[in-house]
Amino acid sequence: MSATRPRKSRSDGERSRAVILDQAARLATVDGLGGLSLSRLADAVGMSKSGLFAHFGSKEELQLATIEAAEKVFADIVLAPATGTRGMARVRALVDGYLAYVHNETFPGGCFFASALVEMSMQPGEPRDRLVDFMNRWLAELEAALREAQDGGSLAQDEDPAQLAFELEAALFLANAQFAAARNSTPIRRARSMIERRLGL
Amino acid sequence: MSATRPRKSRSDGERSRAVILDQAARLATVDGLGGLSLSRLADAVGMSKSGLFAHFGSKEELQLATIEAAEKVFADIVLAPATGTRGMARVRALVDGYLAYVHNETFPGGCFFASALVEMSMQPGEPRDRLVDFMNRWLAELEAALREAQDGGSLAQDEDPAQLAFELEAALFLANAQFAAARNSTPIRRARSMIERRLGL
After folding, report:
1. Is B80 helix (H, G, I), strand (E, B) or coil?
2. Closest approach of chain A CAs to the CA of B168, in angstroms?
3. What is the predicted pLDDT for the residue at A122?
4. Rounded mean pLDDT, A161-188
5. Which of A146, B83, B125, B149 could be stapled to B87 by a disulfide with Cβ–Cβ 3.0 to 4.6 Å?
6. Which residues of B touch A122 (CB under 8 A)?
């Protein structure tokens, strides 16, 4: 029987891996990264648990692959539109990109990284370390753009870019959590207003 | 045999319930409120699962009782020290109380309500509703104190207290998440600095 089925090419395998991980990242924003069991995911993608196990040998491997897939989504939706911008224009593009990513419900439960980091911060291991690293890289993106703005004269010299990156991220982080809980755009509007006022835009 | 053991008085029962829920709230900030199984909690408090089941008939009852216990801790540690203050002094007392509650590791995984709300925001049910309600009451506390400050002249008339409450909470919310992940006091200092600058303190 199985010999009559067409062999799966490598690209079919890659495609189905991408479909599985897309679904895994979405599920993780609803049930948590820790709630991402192979059996639950198998139900969601309509595969057998053993079929999934062939892709991911363990729950931790699945979690790491899911984080990697979510990083690609974040890069496409939030970072890519800011390509080629510099300084204050880049700060704006990153902030706008992030708020759109939340508001458009890219993931059903809000920002993948915000919820996964909160969930995993007390769970030592590679998934937690990757999430902390992601948060640090995101803050470093904001800080670098703010530093460029300062070098270009559109941000006061006495501002501390690291402190200001914390303040922008604070607005974004709470907007995401409130939007996920309430599904109305008030927190998105408040975050934007807070950031524009702070940057003098 | 059991007849020779002293009968437990009602106050013993209450005390042990309080001990169980204290442990449950602590565990929930590490493993999540969803990870709070009767068997795991039974291990943590050194009771049998059936003994625990006598206290809490279901996982949801246990979750609700745990939220209630955490609310009492929050009231004692964050709200009580602000008793009798008004206006801007009250805003400061609430902010200082919250940052101390995080920094002193009242719960091992950071603010119980911040992590539980993020975890449960996509899980419809009474626990989620209680957590959303708690967040709204906390924001209303901040907003009411800001409004008093405005009425008393220590906050500009053109400020929107609801917007400003969002901004203060943004600083507190990110400080908690970063402190839980990194265990250093930089985010606490950044949140304080952000709030003092914003309020002109």
Report:
1. helix
2. 9
3. 94
4. 97
5. B149
6. 29-31, 108-109, 180
B197 pLDDT band (50/70/90 cuts)?
very high
Q: What is the pLDDT of residues A11-53, one digit of tens each?
A: 666 668 899 999 999 999 999 998 887 888 888 888 888 888 8
What CATH topology corresponds to B66-199?
Answer: Tetracycline Repressor; domain 2 (1.10.357)
Q: Do A118 and B191 touch (CB under 8 A)?
A: no
Contact B74, B112 (CB under 8 A): yes
For domain A60-199, the CATH superfamily is: Tetracycline Repressor, domain 2 (1.10.357.10)
Which chain B residue has the Cα nearest residue A195? B167
From B106, B84, B83, B79, select the one nearest B95 (Cα to Cα).
B79
Over residues A54-103, the pLDDT tens digits come to: 888 888 999 999 999 999 999 999 999 999 999 999 999 999 999 999 99
| Chain B CB contacts of A123 below 8 Å | 30-31
Positive or negative, the CA dihedral B70, B73, B74, B75 is positive
Q: Which residues lie below 8 Å from residue A178, measured CB to CB, with a gap of 6+?
A: A186, A187, B135
Amino acid at B101: Y
Q: Which residues of B touch A110 (CB under 8 A)?
A: 121
Which residue in B102, B59, B62, B55 sits closest to B78, CA to CA?
Answer: B102
- Residue B124 corresponds to which amino acid? P
3-state secondary structure of A59: helix
Q: Is residue B194 within 8 Å of A167, Cβ to Cβ?
A: yes
State whether B167 and A194 contact (CB < 8 Å): yes
Interface of A to B at Cβ within 8 Å reads 29-32, 34-35, 108-110, 114-115, 117-119, 121-123, 132, 135, 163, 166-167, 169-171, 173-175, 177-178, 180-182, 187, 190-191, 193-194
Beta strand extents in B31-184 (DSSP E only): none
Residue A148 scores a pLDDT above 60: yes
- Whole-number pLDDT of residue A180: 96
Percent above pLDDT 90 for chain A = 77
Measured between alpha carbons, how far is A116 from A10 in angstroms, rounded to an integer? 30
Q: What is the DSSP letter of A183?
A: -
